[in-house]
Amino acid sequence: xxxxxxRETRSLxxxxxxxxxxxxxxxxxxxxxALMLMMKAGVFQPARLVSLRGIEALIAIGxxxxxxxxxxxMTSLAMVEQSAAVRAHAPVITRTLRTLSNVxxxxxxxxxxHLAHADPHMDLPPVLIALGARVTVAGRSGERTxxxxxxxxxxxxxxxxxxxxxxxxxxxxxxxxxxSYLKCTTRAVHDWPALGVAVSLDSEADTVxxxxxxxxxxxxxxxxxxxAEKVLRAGSVGDALLRQAGDAAAEEAELISDGQGSATYxxxxxxxxxxxALGAALAQGGGARH
Length: 290
Prior knowledge:
Blueprint: E1 5-8, H1 12-18, E2 26-29, H2 35-40, E3 48-51, E4 61-63, E5 69-72, H3 77-82, H4 84-89, H5 91-97, H6 103-108, H7 111-117, H8 124-130, E6 134-139, E7 142-147, E8 152-154, E9 157-158, E10 164-171, E11 178-185, E12 193-204, E13 207-216, E14 223-224, H9 226-233, H10 239-252, H11 263-283
Parallel strand pairs: 1-3, 2-3
Antiparallel strand pairs: 4-5, 5-10, 6-7, 6-10, 8-9, 11-12, 12-13, 13-14
Helix pairs in contact: 9-10, 10-11
């Protein structure tokens, strides 16, 4: 690695002040699990890293007055995984984290870093999009709120300015909604997925009133499958309808080829896994299937 400057910070305003909107070689570092690998490989050569580890105010898990779950950006993935509040609010997050990489990574990686890295193979982004989550972002121009669905601009790209930092993740109250996340890996369960599918839905008897279907890893960024959602809302819940939704998702998804598989292979995965993820969510409440 080439030499670089490392600056420690104790507050969010201090960290923002050390960032440079015009200089791509100045970057924040949270857990560093992904960034350090990029540096060792020579993909990224920073002039300055701004460490966020000392900002203790961003390590928190709590609940807002509106019932929303609030997670500070520097909270480790392991803390989120082990949190009773998270498990009660959105158990799909807890289940997802149990197979995200390995425990060593989860002990170090942070919620904010996980999202800001924008790797399309990450497990949490599609889940959070399906749950309707949003992030609070702070920068020199002030604070703004961005739906997680709008955070990602492309492959390893976000809409964040270089002098902006994610400060908090907000997951709204889920009410009677049920959610699931399934992924297909080509090797071990904790490996990079070839496909991830997140589903959140609200149903009554054999009717789906509302649904969010998000796929990742097979696409350049986590993507909602609006066509598949429309199919599911238009019919009576059953295995045939779930297969139709899977077919619709496979046709509308813009898939990529990478080390985890070809676009053709992933198209078949989408067809199968969307139907399975929908079935898994419905089964949580004993939803009708025929």
